[in-house]
Amino acid sequence: MIGCRALLAGVFVIALAGKVRGRAAFDEFVASIVALGMFPRAGSVPAAYAVLGAEAVVVLSLALPSTVLLGFAAAMMLLAALTAGILAAVRRGRRAPCRCFGASAAPLGRAHVVRNLVLLLVGGTGLTAGAVAGDAGAHPAGIVLALVAAAVGVLSVVRLDDLLGLFTTSVSPR
């Protein structure tokens, strides 16, 4: 449960920080929501604030020991909503950039859906482990191992577009 908690908290902290690090970053996030066509232009700013608020709730819930299970549930609900939004946009042929973690110019696509589904699985695993094991003590070595694995997971999620760029080639048509 510690690894799942650290991974999701880390992902959402970086996602939140990437959107609020400056006015330009927030404006780019709003522009990506507009480009997805999910809401009318006037509704995109409130939607952006709603995402920020939901991310903050997830981070705070996962940080406090008494609300960890709520944090897993909130993370899963947010991830499900974001995944549904990505799927709807992709089906309509929208190619908006992914502003999930800041300045990526990669358009949202199937890889982002898979990423979110993996994070949903992490949330479900953490929720199940927390419900079954409760506050059972963990060995310090296990905690360190879980935190290292979570850090690698966070880095992989946050840099997904860069990793995909390393392993895919784009050939321009002639």
Automatic annotation (TrEMBL):
It is a multi-pass membrane protein. The chain crosses the membrane at residues 68-90, 117-134, 140-158. It comes from the Bacteria. Pfam families: MauE. Residues 3-128 form the Methylamine utilisation protein MauE domain. InterPro entries: Methylamine_util_MauE. Keywords: Membrane, Transmembrane, Transmembrane helix. Its main location: membrane. It is found in: Membrane. This is Methylamine utilisation protein MauE domain-containing protein. It comes from Streptosporangium brasiliense.
